[in-house]
Amino acid sequence: MSANLNQTNIEIDDPNFQQAFSQLQGNILKGHGRDHSRHVFFSFVGDSTANRQWLAQISNQVTSTLEQQNQQQRFKEKNEIHLFTNLMLSCHGYKQLGIEQEKWPSDKAFQAGMKDLTTPFDTLPRGDHNPTANPLNDDLEQWENGFLRQIDGMVLLALGGIDSAQAEQQLEQEVQKLQASMAGVAEVVFVQKGHVMRNDKQQVIEHFGFVDGVSNPKFLFSELNEEFKNGGYSRNDPSAPLNTVMVPDPGGNADSFGTYVVYRKLQQNIKGFWDRLDILANTLSENSPTNVDAEYAGALCVGRFKDGTPISEQGNDGWSNLFNNFNYDDDADGLKCPFHSHARKTNPRGDTVRQFNSPPTIERSRRIVRRGISFGSTDLAPNKEWTDAGLLFISLQADIVDQFIFMQNTWCNNEGFVRQGTGMDPLVGQAKKGQPPAAQKWPTSWGSPNAEQVDFSFSGFVKTLGGEYFFMPSLQFLRSLSA
Ligand code: HEM
After folding, report:
1. Which of 83, 92, 100, 245 is least surrounded by CB atoms within 10 angstroms?
2. 359-375 pLDDT, tens digit each
3. Cβ–Cβ under 8 Å, residues 423 and 437
4. 343 CA distance to ligand 1 centroid (A)?
């Protein structure tokens, strides 16, 4: 029986999905979990036959969903270490392989590529169409040279479970092996290193110091069960149908699926961010009966405290630690968690239902699967601005325009979302070049309807250094290229 993508809460060993999962790449339904990675961006230089044969050959190294599960089991039982590999192609990559156009993945953004700032995209909510070009407000002048070159594909290599130095050394060797296999067919455009950073509780953090990767759509029953440990799912259901992230692979057979990948290298200005938070905290304290500090101001920006606690969940007896089982039903006016905060902009948890009478299924269909990893220095308190530090943002989705682009454009960058005067996402909102964003409104007292709201402009501490849209095809498609 072939896979039904409307389903959720399935298991990897579900008999109906064995064919599909033997061909679906890993890291889609569940993160690969390794702490060290290399992203090897390449462009083809050979003829299309040679290009195809090389891809078919390295597809043997690509980790399927089933194999990822087996590797995880063997790691648990015998501490066996396995290299994890994903392979993805840009639309230009499909062209270089000589694939007929009707077999290209059809997403409009994928076909245009991220460097294209002229193709218009429909980024307004359904039924209100007004296509806009450059919906992300990207500025190619800020991009690193590597991303400005032609990128045909990327191989993601990841290792974990061993000593960091050993993992790094082994990954270097794997990159060299990959590069050697490409001779005469493709050249490495550049290699991006990534590494997970952790706090003292071993939770994953990003460079501003906040716990990251907490809230993600869940496809597997076992993962949903894990949420139970963090307070259950009575107030937020993280489960999502497979078609949030899986699409039929146009180059494969009935059981071949793939996903669209958004890759963005986002540099973080750690010193600038915390200096500005100090000023925000002082401004709020001057207008508030209580003193607030930069950590609290940071939670207003992110929507969560550094330890992951949602800011909307403050009780009389201190901060709760519910992690993901929350919504904004008790905070309909954004007095606890500001509407503009990053976590609320990117997952409004019912705000669009309250504000626009929009069906909850539409809001939920915008969700993306985040599989990013940090890059650069591990110094979280540098004394210089714009150090080599940031996030290699990777999101997976079934539709780049309706999910990632919609989220960044219509929610994060939109000063009128979810209400007029909300302001942009202070963390990742990207303003149009030469148009300074308006100030956001910040509550001076937590949850108090009579408290003053202070205008304060907070933005510009994350810069896009480049990126690309990819498709991560089925193994069946990759293997068929040898024919
Ligand atoms: C350097 C850039 C970024 C940083 C530092 C960052 C940081 C964070 C943090 C700390 C959280 C809260 C913890 C969690 O739920 O995982 C979060 C959540 C999230 N972020 Fe980001 N993020 C960045 C970029 C982005 C971008 C570009 C998007 C998409 C446009 C995005 C989408 C999301 C989503 C969907 C959530 C989960 C919200 C929820 O379900 O509650 N992030 N991010």
Report:
1. 100
2. 999 999 999 999 999 99
3. yes
4. 6
**175 and 282 share one domain:** no
Instruction: Pick the residue whose CA is nearest to atom 8 on ligand 1.
Output: 212
Q: Does the C-beta of 335 come closer than 6 Å to ligand 1?
A: no
CB of 364 closer than 6 A to ligand 1? no
Phi, psi of 103 (to 5 degrees): -100, 5
> Is the same domain home to 327 and 270?
yes
Per-residue pLDDT tens digits for 189-214: 999 999 999 999 999 999 999 999 99
Which atom of ligand 1 lies at the shortest distance from residue 367's CA?
Answer: 35
- Pocket-testing residue among 204, 215, 267, 425, ligand 1, by greatest number of atoms within 8 A of Cβ: 215
For the cut 70, the answer to whether the pLDDT of residue 337 exceeds it is yes
163 and 99 share one domain: yes
CA of 272 from ligand 1 middle (Å) equals 19
Whether residues 146 and 22 share a domain: the answer is yes
User: How many whole angstroms from 303 Cα to the centroid of ligand 1?
Assistant: 10
Backbone angles phi, psi at 404, to 5 degrees: -60, -50
pLDDT at residue 128 in the model: 64
Whether 218 maps to a domain, the answer reads no
Residue with tokens 């169409």: 129
Ligand 1 centroid vs 167 CA: distance in angstroms? 27
* pLDDT reading at 417 higher than 50: yes
User: Ligand 1 pocket, 462 CB below 6 A?
Assistant: yes
Q: Which residues pair with 120 in a beta bridge?
A: 133
Read off the pLDDT of residues 73-127 as tens digits, 9 standing for 90 and up: 999 999 999 999 999 999 999 999 999 999 999 999 999 999 999 999 998 876 6
Is the domain of 296 the same as that of 167? Answer: no
- CA end-to-end span of the chain, whole Å? 26
Domain coverage including residue 56: 18-199+472-480
